[in-house]
Amino acid sequence: MNSYFGTGRLKPLASTAQGVVVGKHDGSRATLYVGSLDDPVVFYHEAAHEALFTTTIDGSILAVLWHAIDRLGITDARLLKDVSATARALMVSSRFAHEVVATYYGIKMVDDKPGALALAKLPRSYRTYFKTASEVIDPWFKSSFLQVRVILALGNFTFRSPFARRFFQDHSSRSPD
Ligand SMILES: [Zn+2]
Prior knowledge:
The protein has 177 residues and is mainly alpha-helical. It has one domain (12-162). The chain contains seven helices and three strands. Bound molecules: zinc ion. The site of zinc ion has 6 residues, from strand 1, helix 1 and helix 3.
């Protein structure tokens, strides 16, 4: 686990079933725990987090910031404080959207019956994440083939905020260091 998620710091995007952590994603890598290695719902849940961290601009910025904090050994205290504050703000504001996409995608990528069984085992918060997406998507798209594409499209749209554009506009006049 990255040190960024150590004691007293941010919690990684962890998924639980019946009170047990079954998978997590820390921005750099997904982890499936023993006991859930053969569970396709957990696999697809973490795969959705992976897709958001690697294929969207906001997810990529957060992953890069976490990587910089934990792996690049930033020694400038002020820079580390600023980068950490930005990463924390991005995580706090995007956790709900991350989990909505991952939970819905994980359930919809499996057949109806195992999906319903998995949904019933999830904590209330994760059932709320699922419901948030299903109430918007399911009335309009009846096949899971389309539903998973819609949630990925919505995820890509949601994680393409003006944040990156503002950042590059603010810094476009500066020459690279
Ligand atoms: Zn998750």
